[in-house]
From TrEMBL:
UniProt: Mg(2+) binding residues: 71, 87, 89-90, 220
Swiss-Prot/TrEMBL keywords: Hydrolase, Magnesium, Metal-binding
Protein name, entry field: Inositol-1-monophosphatase
GO biological process: inositol metabolic process; phosphatidylinositol phosphate biosynthetic process; signal transduction
Keyword Protein transport tagged: no
Enzyme class: hydrolase
Phylogenetic placement of the source organism: Bacteria, Bacillati, Actinomycetota, Actinomycetes, Micrococcales
Species the sequence originates in: Promicromonospora sukumoe
UniProt record similarity statement: Belongs to the inositol monophosphatase superfamily.
């Protein structure tokens, strides 16, 4: 329908900010878990649902022909070829405990809404507790609170601050701990901040040097990927594959191959698993 990347990005920012305001203002003193998902430690709160409902209503009003893929609701089919990929609260465990790292992540992609085949046109990650807002449009660069950002250029892996995250499944976590044992001795230090969307944005503005995670869902990563790549970072998977559920690695072009080699040797994507991903 001739919509521009700039207009999509502006809408992503409006959506993420509106949902962020709802979540911030509605956070009760004690957050109750409404349900659990993939495992007992994977929470959904009333606010996850309310935030996603608001996003869906706004998209239906402004872009009724677009499809929607959201973490907490049913997929909505569209006719425009564009899909909004929504994480109403990324970092739900932080939200639950009041640790200040949770975000609304909104992206719009062309093509099938899977990391292997999509083109992320625009995205916004709005950090709810402190209001920081990262956004990017394809070919337009990335900003934090309106100011252009560039990803960092650390001299070596050993002087790099690396972000990562863990899934909710116990078996997966013990595998991730083994991979961590290979990576931790080789870097400056590791941060597990609790929101993949924010991690990718911190990578984009140079607050983290490198990032990797296994098991990301499309909504955890869509907005963060366009912010990171537009800020100059490389985002990839292992074994020549694109970033996705099996593995997402992000960082500077000259250091990512070294991290990829370590992760492949540690079978960090479980490519050796017979069960697959
Ligand atoms: C989670 C966060 C976390 C990451 C997990 C995600 P959620 O998303 O992004 O940092 O390590 O893989 O599932 O459950 O808070 O929306």
């Amino acid at each position: 329908d001739g919509v521009t990347v700039t207009a999509l990005r502006d809408l992503a920012v409006r959506l993420a900010t509106a949902a962020g305001t709802l979540v911030r203002e509605g956070r009760p003193e004690r957050v109750e878990v409404a349900a659990t998902k993939s495992s007992d430690v994977d929470p959904v709160t009333v606010m996850d649902r309310a935030s996603e409902e608001l996003l869906r209503e706004m998209i239906a009003a402004e872009r009724p022909d677009d499809a929607i893929l959201g973490e907490e609701g049913d997929d909505v089919a569209g006719t425009s070829g564009l899909t909004w990929v929504l994480d109403p609260i990324d970092g739900t465990v932080n939200y639950l405990y009041g640790v200040a790292s949770w975000a609304v992540s909104v992206a719009v992609v062309a093509g099938p809404p899977e990391p292997a085949s999509w083109t992320v046109l625009a995205g916004c990650v709005h950090s709810i507790a402190d209001g920081r807002t990262w956004s990017a449009g394809l070919g337009e660069g990335a900003t934090r609170d309106g100011a252009p950002i560039r990803s960092g250029a650390p001299a070596s892996l050993s002087t790099s601050l690396l972000g990562t995250g863990f899934g909710y499944d116990a078996v997966r976590r013990s595998e991730q701990a083994q991979v961590l044992a290979q990576v931790l001795p080789r870097v400056r230090d590791i941060r597990r901040l609790g929101s993949a969307a924010i991690d990718l944005c911190l990578l984009a503005d140079g607050s983290l040097d490198l990032y990797y995670e296994r098991g990301l869902n499309p909504w955890d990563m869509a907005a963060g990927v366009v912010v990171a790549t537009e800020a100059g970072a490389v985002v990839t998977g292992l074994r020549g594959r694109p970033a996705g559920n099996a593995m997402t690695v992000a960082g500077p072009r000259d250091l990512v191959p070294e991290l990829v080699t370590i992760l492949e040797a540690a079978d960090a994507d479980g490519a050796g698993d017979t069960a697959g991903d």
